[in-house]
Amino acid sequence: MTEPLQANFDPAELARFSALASRWWDPNSEFRPLHHINPLRLDWIAALSPLPRSTVLDVGCGGGILAEAMARRGADVTGIDLARAPLAVATLHAREAGAAVRYLATSAEELATRQAARYDVVTCMEMLEHVPRPAETIAACAALVKPGGWVFFSTINRTPLSWLVAIVGAEWVLRLLPRGTHQWRRFIRPAELVAQAQGQGLVLEDARGLGYNPFTRRFRLHRWQGVGYLLAFRRPANARG
């Protein structure tokens, strides 16, 4: 008999995002940065892994900004999250927008016990820095993707500059995010994430940094990963599912 999975979430984090759920799709709300970076991350994902007719799992989907965008590109998308209020917002918005996205209140770890090697693409964006044990989420994402499939992560590097930019700058000075959104000790260095993903059989295919210009108020992708970054992995086609 297998032991039950230990819940890999922070109740305070779920409460924080649930309290803001009604403003998820307001481009001028606390979620403005997500609306601004979504076209960048969507185009990056689509350039590496064609989305039409692909089965996609969006882990930590929140209110569904990325999930809906991938569905509009022709993907068969499932979004999962443990915060039920954002999921309710995501479901309602998808219905109103005519977007074919299914949403489930579950974790990647739990879903991996039932749907291993099911998805062509697994995305886990801006989520790892909010869970107590990110290595478990990384392992679950690796288990959920098919051989030959792609896994995409985005998170924040743990450097002195990331504290200055992502917390002091974004939360305290520019107020792009509510105070307390991030905890610096939970940020993950790229080398740490790569090592954990490679330990699960994934192969790194691409890496990008995420930059923000406070004067133009624009985000962009580049090669430097000192603050925010995105990593694309692939499970070898000959890997066992």
Automatic annotation (TrEMBL):
GO terms for biological process: methylation. InterPro entries: SAM-dependent_MTases_sf, UbiG_MeTrfase. Pathway: Cofactor biosynthesis; ubiquinone biosynthesis. SUPFAM superfamilies: S-adenosyl-L-methionine-dependent methyltransferases. It comes from the Bacteria. Transmembrane segments: none annotated. Its EC number is 2.1.1.222, 2.1.1.64. It catalyses: a 3-(all-trans-polyprenyl)benzene-1,2-diol + S-adenosyl-L-methionine = a 2-methoxy-6-(all-trans-polyprenyl)phenol + S-adenosyl-L-homocysteine + H(+); a 3-demethylubiquinol + S-adenosyl-L-methionine = a ubiquinol + S-adenosyl-L-homocysteine + H(+). The keyword S-adenosyl-L-methionine applies. S-adenosyl-L-methionine binds at R41, G60, D81, M125. Keywords: Methyltransferase, S-adenosyl-L-methionine, Transferase, Ubiquinone biosynthesis. GO terms for molecular function: 2-polyprenyl-6-hydroxyphenol methylase activity; 3-demethylubiquinol 3-O-methyltransferase activity. Belongs to the methyltransferase superfamily. UbiG/COQ3 family. NCBIfam families: UbiG. O-methyltransferase that catalyzes the 2 O-methylation steps in the ubiquinone biosynthetic pathway. PANTHER family: METHYLTRANSFERASE, UBIQUINONE BIOSYNTHESIS O-METHYLTRANSFERASE, MITOCHONDRIAL. This is Ubiquinone biosynthesis O-methyltransferase. It comes from Ramlibacter pallidus. The gene is ubiG.
